[in-house]
Amino acid sequence: MILNTATPVALLDIVHASEVRPNFPPCLANNFYGIFGQQSVFKISDFACLELLPNSVGEGSVVPLYLPEDGPQQLVWIQESFIDNSLRTPEYEAEVANFVDWLVPEEHITYPDGRAVLFEGGKPAPASLVYRTANSGVVAVADQGAAHTLSTRLPRFWKALPIPTKPVSYLPVPETVIEQVRDILVSLRFDALVAGIVNRISVEQMHKDIRYHTNEDGTSGIASRHSFHHGSRIAAKWLKTQFEDAGAACSFMPFLEGFAPNVICSDTVLIFGHYGSRGSFGLERAPGGNDDASGTISILNVARRIKQTGITFRTNVELVVFAGEEQGLLGSKAYVKELRMRVANIVLMVQADMLAYHVPDEPPQLGLARFIGTPEVTQLVANISAIYSPELTVGFTVVCCSDHQSFHEQGYPATHLFERAGPIADPMYHNSGDLSDRPGYDLNQVRSICKVQFATLLHAAGFDLPEGVNLEELD
């Protein structure tokens, strides 16, 4: 949506993420700003660059960008999550309509130039709609702080993702790295030791962990794990202690002022989730029992099982839980930047985000990323699921854009594990009722997906049992 008839300062070129190629012309490749809602965003200076695109690239959107010097400068991508039609209730559609009424200049003109008002810290600031589709858009606000404030105004199934102010590198996964994954795929066979290790993951322990995380047991005092809330600090300290009790060496990684830290536990095979949460608009409570305490407890119970068995890995392994996912993958982006600076060699990484819910009458499922990620890693996970968790129905999901995307953009092989081979169907998604004690919340499904994640780690990293210990002696 164009706000005025002034000369544009730039053009936003928006194409599907799957269309990005290593042979993109430099005028595009050097002006890449990231992937948002499966859309790759470039900021270019003229239309002539678009004529250099390969013929194989499909259609996209080219948006003239108007940013007056005295107006908003921070661009924010807003996106509706990929949700099942069952979640499109009249109440929800009213939320979306009210948000659009507030944001669209023709219907809510507060500033003379057609900008809506965003209240940040009690002070009014302008917010201008730059681009809009039925389920996404680009908004210009004053700064990154205003971008985080904007996220509090969104409808329940929407996210606000700040677009960087400078171009970022887009690094395709090197063929040599993909070949390593292919080698694991070719050699993959059922391993009785792997089965013996992963089959003893405890649902009972997961139940204790999730109830602490959501404060359903009344002991943690965590009202919210939103990255700005003090409850997220409690969760971070508890997670660090639990991982360390399981034998890991852990550290906090601060990345932005005001945000809870990443918890990094020791580097070439990674499994990770995010421990932040989001609740209902206007309510402090954000238990995040499914999104993403389910993924967090999966990783925590992998760590516990590693200690119980005494196994050692032949390749370095890292277990990570990120903060800042709900505000735009901020924790994982900061961590990937650090990995790139130290030229880390990563074999693969597997993200667990939302594992616990399935629709009544549907079987336990595992949804794998259709667009964002490395197909070979996704295929490896699918094959491992068939071997070690055959109770899961495996398929693709269009749900996207969790922390694995940060790694995918920087040339690391990655994939995402999700609870459903389809769109989001959890009615408590981004809701203060996201607890474990409710219909459809299934810790047995979490355990089954956890087995897949752990078995992938064991096959990718390689492992050895303690000397003198055999399969029968594994507890």
Strand content: 15-25%
Helical percentage: 25-40%
Shape: globular
How many separate helices?
Answer: 12
Question: Can you give the mean pLDDT?
Answer: 86
| Major sheet: arrangement of strands | 10-11-14-12-15-18-16-17
Tell me the number of strands: 19
Radius of gyration from CA coordinates: 22 Å
Task: Tell me the structural class.
Answer: alpha+beta
Q: How far is it from the N-terminal to the C-terminal residue, by CA?
A: 61 Å
Low-confidence stretches: 1-6, 106-115, 119-124
For the biggest sheet, the summary is: 8 strands, mixed
What can you tell me about this protein's structure?
The chain contains twelve helices and 19 strands. Helices cover 30% and strands 21% of the residues. The radius of gyration is 22 Å and the shape is globular. The N and C termini lie far apart (61 Å). The protein has an eight-stranded mixed β-sheet, sandwiched between helices. Strands 6-7-8-5-9 form a five-stranded antiparallel β-sheet, covered by helices on one side. Helix 4 (175-187) runs parallel beside helix 10, helix 6 packs across helix 8 and helix 8 crosses helix 12 (443-461).
